[in-house]
Specification:
Number of domains: 2
Strand content: 15-25%
Distance between the termini: 22 Å
Helix content: 25-40%
Shape: globular
Number of strands: 11
Order of helices and strands: HHEEHEHEHEEEHEHHEHEHEH
CATH topology of the largest domain: Rossmann fold
CATH class of the largest domain: Alpha Beta
Strand order of the largest sheet: 8-7-9-10-11
Structural class: alpha/beta
């Protein structure tokens, strides 16, 4: 998979005369995307365009498709992240590729080509423990993208003292991901306490009138607090990705990103 560094290395080899133009063209034959079977087209350019390789949505894919995708990504030593992956399919992949890791709570599978300590600080909070699977999806996504992530779970508005007890952590974050179901009030409270972006994640947790997360979604969209953005119901991945981008830009602006 052609990421930025591998492309730079290839161009330098041509420049230094270590390989011919024809050999370089052969290396680029699958650029910018590669067909895997009849239905999968792996986006080889994603890391160059967006700073992180294509993330694979596992739900709905067959075992054969997932194994083929995993094999191709690992063969190129690119970061691998598969979301919404059923446990039985994950075990099949781990059996074939034991270097990968399955995370059962967020139902994600990952492998990092060059693990390094995270930078900055992304803070992930939940209203309750039932929101943890979505929160872990956000946290793991941000960590895969190079962010340092701190988790604070079960600090919902029904016991506000639990949140206020963590005020120092809230104030130290570059960006916060706030995950809540029920009435979805937590992001508004958090946004009223901090001066950085808050990404609100409604979850489908709740009783009948929560309408599988619709009540929380609408509450977050109508937040009276400033600085709140909202992702789709149960979309921890989208929130974690956005948080990592904000964290990265914060590091760049302060000269901490290399």
């Amino acid at each position: 998979m052609m990421n930025q560094q591998s492309l730079i290395n290839l161009l330098q080899k041509v420049q230094n005369g270590h390989i011919s133009i024809e050999e370089a063209l052969q290396s680029l034959r699958n650029y910018p995307y590669e067909n895997i079977g009849d239905v999968v087209r792996l986006d080889q350019q994603r890391a160059l365009r967006c700073g992180f390789p294509e993330v694979i949505f596992g739900a709905g894919k067959s075992e054969e498709q997932l194994l083929a995708i995993t094999e191709r990504i690992l063969s190129q030593e690119s970061d691998l992240l598969i979301t919404r992956l059923a446990e039985n399919l994950a075990h099949k992949i781990v059996e074939t590729f034991p270097q990968v890791k399955y995370h059962p709570i967020p139902q994600m599978l990952s492998w990092r080509s060059n693990p390094e300590p995270g930078k900055g600080r992304v803070l992930v909070l939940t209203g309750g423990t039932a929101d943890i699977p979505v929160a872990e999806e956000a946290a793991l996504t941000a960590e895969m993208m190079g962010a340092s992530v701190t988790r604070i779970f079960d600090v919902g508005v029904a016991g506000l003292h639990r949140l206020l007890d963590k005020i120092d952590l809230l104030l130290s974050a570059k960006v916060l991901v706030v995950v809540a179901g029920m009435e979805g009030a937590l992001p508004s409270v958090v946004a009223g306490l901090v001066s950085v972006p808050v990404i609100a994640v409604p979850t489908s947790v709740g009783y009948g009138a929560s309408f599988n997360g619709l009540a929380a979604l609408l509450a977050m969209l109508n937040s009276c607090a400033n600085g709140v953005s909202v992702v789709n119901i149960d979309n921890g991945f989208g929130a974690g990705y956005q948080a990592a981008l904000i964290n990265r830009q914060s590091l760049i602006s302060t000269g901490q990103h290399d």
